[in-house]
Amino acid sequence: MRASVYHNIARDDHGRLINFDGYQPGQPLVHVLEADIDPGLGDGTPEELAERIFAACNLAPNKLTGCLRTIATAYRHRGLRNQSPGDVTAIGDGDTRVVMSVDSFGFTRITGALNTVAVSRHGTLPWPAPVWMLHRWDRHDDVVTPHPTDEHAIRQLAGHARSSWAAVAGQPGVPATPPLADQDTVDLYYGPDGSEGGPCGDEEGYSLHRVELASPTPAVPPLTAERDAATAQAERAAADRAAAERARDTALGERDTAREHARDAAETARAAERDRDRLAEDLTRAREELAGQRRERDDAAQQAARAAAERDIARGQAETAETARREAETQRDTALAEARAARDRKNR
Q1: What is the dihedral of CA 120, 126, 129, 134, to 10 degrees?
Q2: Inside any domain, residue 346
Q3: Pseudo-torsion of CA 232, 236, 237, 239, nearest 10°?
Q4: Are 145 and 77 in contact (CB under 8 A)?
Q5: Residue 132, SS3?
Q6: Considering its fold, how many domains does the chain have in total?
Q7: Is 146 in the same domain as 105?
Q8: pTM of the full predicted structure?
């Protein structure tokens, strides 16, 4: 069973989208996706199947399983907007085909021919349309992804090159930072031909080619056991990469913590050296002050010694003067006695 999805691009006189008001006959519709539904998914009323298609057009692929996951992946890879009220879903083929408009709640069956147009809008790309297949490989990955335009593929490729730019920066002809233009970034990183001549060497490369998807070949074939296995393997690889990234982040966090501890220890050591230098300066000043006090004490002792010597000299001089005074008194007394004796002799 086949499912078809149409985007309503009707606008009012002011250019505003009016699809949210609900589908009206004659409004322009763009056929954006054609997909096969697995037999198991095909059970149920057309409205129930349309509800499942609506989920595939609005939820992330990893929220779904089986055929719906494949439809969601193709829908997202084409860069299509979410399915909204006013859009149209068709279920079935030929006389059994049921066409329904998306309402705010549920679906409404519609009759009559659809006014389909092949017009591209943001989030709306006509079907059938070319798909650009990007094949990128390196030492760790070898992946192929579809893209609605070559610009979209180059933009994704440039994002990968910028995330790995540090590995090639500084090589001859490679600037330190990647260019602003996506194509220039890709050419510098991978080389002009995508696989040789680039600074990243032969270990990394890409190829980009256009694939025409023609109707009535289904856009999204039902999932097979091999595709399920490949999806599971990709999920395991993604989980392993996530675990490796977490381990790397943990290691980086521990390294940063160790660096912070080392910086703290170095700062503590520098502070200790500053304290030691200040203590050494204080000790030097104390020694200088003690030496000054000793010099002052020695000077005072010398002055005291000189004063004692001068005192002793003064005492000696005083004793000499006292002796001279006594001798003078003795001489005076002798002279007086002689004078009295002479006077007495004269009087007799």
Answers
A1: 60
A2: no
A3: 140
A4: yes
A5: strand
A6: 3
A7: no
A8: 0.42
